[in-house]
């Protein structure tokens, strides 16, 4: 009975190992068929998402990291195609780096929404890691300088300007922040302006690694006024008025000059014959030599600063009676 059992076992073993190379090849072929069948049912696509760089609050980057990464996602066909970029976030974590120097960290991808419910889901990211040069973070207050261009309308000028605030805080790597004394606004154009104005302008970033933690805009106020100029008019005739008809002026009078102040537009509009130097001779009652004061006459809106001469000698004779 025992011999019969051994014989049966031997026959089963013989059947198993009989032609074993062919049987192993059949098993391998079945496995490969199963693998490629499942493989054909998987789908792969790529999405591009922003990369968030996480730093220790006391550290700042002095080299650039990629702003986006490319994520490859592979999973069940039909489900992968419905995934959106918004369902993936990518970040690189340098928060453990609290000393200056060069550091590397892997890019990590976090699925969200429906992406979490897909299984299997293979995720790979390009680049796989990011390297950054780190420095201690520094902040300081610096002056804001307006960047003015163009000119107001003819005859007008920028009399004053104000910035609010006049200083702002900057923040960044200590080697970059240390060399910055002031920051400039974006261009403020004065072209054609005749009146005061207020605008909000952005600040120009002085370095790509420097930021404005309190905001990157300021208020600019410009005071526009007519330009005031000083001009001297020469060869001005001196006129004698109110001389009694019984007297006659017998000497020649010199020409004079008048120096005035006024707006550029008013000065440019003045004609020479609008300016006069006058002598009032109503006080003369006898012939002879009379030293009289000269008075300037200028158009309204102009201020007389100086004139010459201030006195003139008149030689007066009585008019002869022809009868």
Strand content: over 45%
Based on CA inertia axes, which overall geometry fits? rod-shaped
Oligomer: single chain
Average pLDDT figure? 88
Domain unit count: 3
Residue stretches low in confidence (pLDDT < 50, at least 5 long) are 32-40
- The CATH topology of the largest domain, please? RNA Polymerase Alpha Subunit, Chain A, domain 2
Order of helices and strands: HHEEEEEEEEEHEEEEEEEHEEEEE
- Helix/strand class: mainly beta
Count the DSSP helices.
Answer: 4
What CATH architecture label of the largest domain applies?
Beta Complex
Tell me the distance between the termini: 190 Å
Helix content: 10-25%
CATH homologous superfamily identity of the largest domain:
YbbR-like domain
Got a strand count?
21
Reading off the top of the CATH hierarchy, the class of the largest domain is best stated as Mainly Beta
- Cα Rg: 48 Å
- Biggest sheet character: 9 strands, mixed
Organism: Spirochaeta africana (strain ATCC 700263 / DSM 8902 / Z-7692)
Protein name: YbbR-like protein
Keywords: Membrane, Transmembrane, Transmembrane helix
Give a brief outline of the structure.
It is built from four helices and 21 strands.
SSE diagram, text form:
Elements: H1 2-17, H2 20-40, E1 42-55, E2 59-61, E3 68-76, E4 88-94, E5 101-111, E6 121-126, E7 129-149, E8 156-164, E9 167-173, H3 174-177, E10 182-189, E11 197-202, E12 217-226, E13 228-236, E14 238-241, E15 247-249, E16 256-263, H4 264-269, E17 276-280, E18 288-293, E19 295-297, E20 303-308, E21 311-318
Parallel strand pairs: 1-4, 7-10, 14-17
Antiparallel strand pairs: 1-3, 2-7, 3-6, 4-5, 5-7, 7-9, 8-12, 11-12, 13-16, 15-21, 16-20, 17-19, 18-21
């Amino acid at each position: 009975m025992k011999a019969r059992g051994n014989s049966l076992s031997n026959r089963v073993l013989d059947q198993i190992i009989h032609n074993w190379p062919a049987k192993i090849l059949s098993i391998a072929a079945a496995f490969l068929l199963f693998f490629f069948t499942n493989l054909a049912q998987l789908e792969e696509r790529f999405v591009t998402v922003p990369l968030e760089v996480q730093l220790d609050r006391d550290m700042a980057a002095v080299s650039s990291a990629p702003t986006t990464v490319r994520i490859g996602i592979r999973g069940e066909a039909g489900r992968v195609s419905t995934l959106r970029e918004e369902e993936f976030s990518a970040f690189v974590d340098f928060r453990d780096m609290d000393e200056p120097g060069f550091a590397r960290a892997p890019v990590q991808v976090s699925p969200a929404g429906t992406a979490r419910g897909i299984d299997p889901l293979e995720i790979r990211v390009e680049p796989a890691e990011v390297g950054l040069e780190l420095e201690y973070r520094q902040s300081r207050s610096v002056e804001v300088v307006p960047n003015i261009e163009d000119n107001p309308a003819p005859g007008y000028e920028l009399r004053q300007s104000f910035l609010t605030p006049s200083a702002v805080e900057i923040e960044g790597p200590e080697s970059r922040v240390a060399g910055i004394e002031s920051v400039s606004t974006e261009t403020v154009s004065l072209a054609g302006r005749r009146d005061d104005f207020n605008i909000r302008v952005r600040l120009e970033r002085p370095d790509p690694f420097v930021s404005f933690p309190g905001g990157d805009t300021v208020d600019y106020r410009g005071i526009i006024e007519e330009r005031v100029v000083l001009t001297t008019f020469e060869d001005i005739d001196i006129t004698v008025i109110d001389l009694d008809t019984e007297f006659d002026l017998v000497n020649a009078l010199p020409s004079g000059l008048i120096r005035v102040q006024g707006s550029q537009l008013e000065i440019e509009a003045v004609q020479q014959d609008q300016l006069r130097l006058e002598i009032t001779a109503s006080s003369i009652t006898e012939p002879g030599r009379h030293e009289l004061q000269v008075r300037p006459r200028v158009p309204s809106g102009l201020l007389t600063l100086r004139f010459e001469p201030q006195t003139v000698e008149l030689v007066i004779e009585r008019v002869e009676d022809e009868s």
